[in-house]
Fold these 4 entries.
Entry 1:
Amino acid sequence: MINTRFEMDRAEQIFQSLGFFLTERGYHSLGSINHLMIFGSDYLELIGLPPGKENLRPQIAEAPLGLHGMVFKTTDVDENHEILRALDFAADPPKTFTRPVKLPEGEFPAKFRTVDVKTGVFPGGRVYFCEHGTPHLLWRPEWQKQTNGVTGIREIVVVSQAFEEEAENLAKILQSEVSGDSSGFCVALVGAKISLMPPLSYEERYRHLASPLAGRTSVFAALVLQTDGLKAIRQVLANRTNRIPVIDETDRVVIHEPIFNCLMEFIE
């Protein structure tokens, strides 16, 4: 999840210029707004607020711009809430909300239930579980074709001074496995992983494109995106009038979008 605060119009233009197909703007019953970039079995979300809604959702209004949320699919948020309670990681009880979705055959309410991990367990950003009550309103083939060739999220990179502790906590809430060493730990997902590493490992991996920690102890620092070939993203970048910092290597293209401080690594 990418936090745009009150700059959704700008974020929409930027991510479209990077070759992503964005769904129409959504208006949540909670007051927030969003756009989705939907892939094969996961998606990237732009989240923000309309002007004048500062106090409606402080977790958006007061959070840093850029990558600031990890959301995990679930079929039962009540079960996730019980797991979090047992770990003393639970925030509020599950909540329900909706947003209208426009389709050729009419407008329908997409339904969601979510439960959050309490603030402070993962200082880098918000972590929560989401149960889709109406998945057919989101997972539509016409919305899954990306000009830049992206087919899915394969890795989320978290940089932390306490990367080992965060990896262990993440594995607990996901009921997953953790592996690694002093250079970094990985928590396994289905078809993907979350990498947690110290600042030095992060800087070695991304060199001059590494996002500054800016005094923070933990940051959701990069997304690794699977593509069906790097030719498409290279073409998208070549067609842009506004150049952005890039690492272009045989097996990856890395870009740092500076306005929303988003580091994205495209791989084959």
Entry 2:
Amino acid sequence: MFTIFVTECGGPAGIGIIKSFNALGKFHLVGLDADQNVPQLCEQHFHSPPATDPSYWPYLNQLIKTEKPHLIVCAGEHDLQILSDHQDEIRETGCKIMISSPETISICQNKWLFYNHCRHYLDVPFTLIGPLISKPNRSSGSRGFKIHMKELFQEYLPGIEYTVDVFCGTNHEPFMIVPRQRLQTKSGISTKAKILNDNDLMKKTRRACQHLKLIGACNLQFKEDTNGNRKLLEVNPRLGGGTVCGLAVGANLASYYLYHTGLSKQKPEDISIVPRTVVRYFEEDFI
């Protein structure tokens, strides 16, 4: 039986990938989280230091050597850079991991770097960064004058918002693309979404994956401008909080992790995207 680590297991993305593995069969799932009060959905849980703490990597490194997992799945934002920086060390232990390069993650986690890296190749919203000034169109005596030193200013996009979930191989080619319209969100997480068969979003996603050199599970955020053009807002080179919605059309990310790391010879089934709406709800766990 394979042992699989899921980091930041208590977040929406962690819960989603745990459900995805459970839908495939029996695994020894090990959850790690800095919050000890998380849903107990794994066979084993470890209360880890926060990823922002210098002790996080030494703790995780020792745990990998002790527990000998076959696969590590990063389900959070905070340890993404750490796991990418140490991915070669992780593989040296015999453990599998599919994650983008440190350079790619640095670009995606910095909105100004992201804009400058993408603006000549991808359709992204116009962006400026301070120092800038703002002032009313009509004023006198410096009334309403403000200085903005480090703030980021971006083109306003009033239209429909989309998320596209992907899984990219080591050649940055997407093997799975599932676009969805975000119908309702809570704290930035989709609670109601409509799966779409949208060639325009799929084409833009393939181009972005190659340009940013994405690997593994990622999600891309698009939003329409005043003319209805879909612009790439941001890319998260990790599992998304609503990625589990893909199960509605047979897109199980757990199967892609297993197949593309060589832990399974069972090739993921082809996806047939039929538009349908996914509604999410709360479920209690008493611990």
Entry 3:
Amino acid sequence: MEFEAFMTEAWTEHAERAEIVAERLSTSTSMIREIDQIPGFAQLTAHVFGEHLGQWQRGLELLEALTRLPCFASKTEAERTIVRLRAALGVASGALGPELYTLDISERVRALSVAAAALTGRAETERAASLFSRVLELATCIADDDPATRALAVMSNNLAAELEQKAERSPAERELMLLAAHTARRRWELAGTWLNIERAEYRLARSCLAAGELAAAFEHAQACLEICRAHDAEPRELFWGFECLAHVAHARLDAPACAAALAAATAILPELPDAIRGECARSLEPLTRVS
């Protein structure tokens, strides 16, 4: 199997078959023939062994093995990625290694962001929240165009989304979810395009809905749709905006607003790509059963 096909399959399957994908990663480093392939492989390694399995030491060992590949070279993006991810797994494991203190502030923000996301995935919310607070303190020292700003936006969005999916949340998880969603919105304002900002408004609306902050959820769902309209967004973006607004209106017991948003979302369904139409239709089912 070619490297790119291997990576695509691994990313597709990793969430449901994490242990199997981890074993494949451990036995497939010989596929890496070019140094530019190392960062992506390393990121998947840290994600699977960290967030999905909590097998910090196995992840650290595999990252170290990447430095022994024939194509590896020091003072490259590959080395920086490995050092950053080793620092992240070390922090998440609770054993602070020396790597973290070799990083500049930008790289440290990125490493701690990865660690906080991994701990959230392992339901270690208190530690994740503590790390996230450290990340936000450090992030005040980085420039708007620093790569860490975008990395923090991505991680914050994913952190909020992860917590939204929980059937029940502790007060600490609720607060972390909202903090992450608000952080994603602010950081995308600095580092992203209008599309990133629109999706951050969607995320924030969803997080507020999950937290029971219905007025704020309604405001952010409307903001999502306003950005879509202002930029002539693709149908899929409009669909998710209306879908979110419909769910928020339903939670607010605003039947007319819910019906209007549901009708708008339903009307967009035929315009969506086949690959996502089924998923989108299913997201409306709870509303169609009660409308």
Entry 4:
Amino acid sequence: MIAINSMQIKRRFLIFSLLLLTFIGSAEQPGSAATLDALPRVNIVKRRTVIVRKGKVARDFPERKRAVVSYPVINGPKNSEVLNKIRAALDFPNIFGSSLKEYQEDAWLTDFDYKVNYNQNYILDLTFTQSGVGAYPDTQTKHFAFNLRNGELLKASDVFNADGLDMLAYRVNEILQVEIKKIIMDNPEIKGDAEQMFGALEFKVGNLDDFAVSAKGLTFLYDAEFPHAIRAVQPGGRYYFPYAQIRNYIKRDGPLGVFVR
């Protein structure tokens, strides 16, 4: 009979414990699991598709048998949590609410494209544009600004100091109101309806969430949503501020901090 002293028992217990911890660690972190990896920029490839309409749609609108669609494909690791969040947000039907098949079955769309406004310093900013013809020609835009550290859309609370939101919205609204006065002055025929058309328009704190990022400043976006019949006198809805003018409102440790340090 072989005697096992206490030192051997301790040594064997230690080896078993280390093996067990290794096994548990491997089980908790499988190679296929998504990883949250911050990305200074992303690799985007433009994919171009031509929609070809057939049947009744093509017969009724022969001049609109085709429509060109260009949209971004985000390249990179399939298990990146950041990239997968962005891919999900930019899934084609999420942009303007229609799939390629729906665009094909309807004659409205003539052109669909996008522009990369900014893609560095852990920020990705894109604007999508679609144009089409119904009762009237029309163009629509949709904007996305992503935080490449977590894949989430940027919000005012992420980038601006909480105690400055009211004043920042006030400053943007001042520009909007000046623009409205100029529109009324340039279009005297609408003066009698001006209160009804413009009276409710105000840029508020809630509107600060929609802003476009560039290397030199921010553009706050505002859609008055006028019906097509009076779209010609709708405010432009793009209010640009160089970073130097709004540096006191920007969080130094936030996603836009790199522009004001």
